[in-house]
C-alpha cells in the first residue's frame, strides 16, 4: 500500500496527452476510478479518497486541461471519455467501478453508454446525461487572472451542455451497468427531477438524495462514502487481481 492516505501522484501519456493521476489503496484491491468536475482536479476528492481507498485500488484522474494534466487546447466530453478509456488500457484495468462528479459524471455516463463492459459499477454525483433544452449554459468571459485549469475547457464543455447531442440522453436506457445516482437535494444548482427521470430510464439504477448541494462528496463526505460503500457492497462483483468475472 502507499504510505500517504491520499496515495502517490503519477503521470502517463494517452494518445499524446499527458494525464496526471493519483493512485492509492491496496494494489490487489478492486479498481475504482474517480472523475472530477469542471474546473476541479483530483485534489477535490481528498476528503473522501482515504475512506474509498480502504477497500479499493483508487485512481483519481486529472482530466485533460485540469490540474497537472496537459492542456492540449481541444476539449469535449467525448475526448475526455476516450482519454479515460485509454487510461484504463494504460494501467491495465479491464473493468472498474467509476465515480464521476458533475462534468466527470457526464464523462462516466458517456463511457457507460459506449463501453459498459469496462465497468462493474457506475456512481454519478448530482448530474444527469445532458438533454437538449434542460440546461442553459451561455458562454462566460475569460477571467482576468490565471486559473488552475485551461479556461478553454470551460468554454467547450459549457457549449456542449447548452446544446448537447440528443443521443446522450436517448442512450441512457441502454446503460446496462449497476448505477447509483447521488443527488444534492434542494440546495443543488442541478434540477433534481432530471436525475430522477434519468434513473427511471436506466435499466438498473437507484437514486439516493443526500443533500449538501452540488458538491455532495465535499459537503457531506461521511454520508457520501456510506452511500457508495453500501451500493458497492450490495452489488459486489467477483474480482481478482487479473480482472473481474462477468456480472451474475
Structure summary:
The protein has 248 residues and is α/β, with parallel strands linked by helices. The chain has eight helices and ten strands. An eight-stranded mixed sheet has the order 1-2-4-3-5-6-7-8, sandwiched between helices. It has a two-stranded antiparallel sheet with strand order 9-10.
Written account of the structure:
This protein has 248 residues and is α/β, with parallel strands linked by helices. It contains eight helices and ten strands. The strands form two sheets. It has an eight-stranded mixed sheet, with helices on both faces. Strands 9-10 form a two-stranded antiparallel ribbon. Strand 5, helix 3 and strand 6 form a beta-alpha-beta unit. The longest helix has 15 residues, at 77-91. The two termini are 30 Å apart.
Label this structure with key terms.
single chain, 248 residues, alpha/beta, 8-stranded mixed sheet, two-stranded antiparallel ribbon, 31% helix, globular, disordered C terminus
In the sheet with the most strands, the strands line up as 1-2-4-3-5-6-7-8
Determine Rg (CA atoms, Å): 17 Å
Biggest sheet layout: 8 strands, mixed
Structural class: alpha/beta
Helix content: 25-40%
pLDDT < 50 stretches: 240-248
- Average pLDDT, rounded to a whole number, is 93
- Percentage of β-strand residues: 15-25%
Please report the distance between the alpha carbons of the first and last residues: 30 Å
Helix-strand pattern, N to C?
EEEHEHEHEHHEHEHHEE
Count of alpha and pi helical runs: 8
| Broad shape | globular
| Strand segment tally | 10
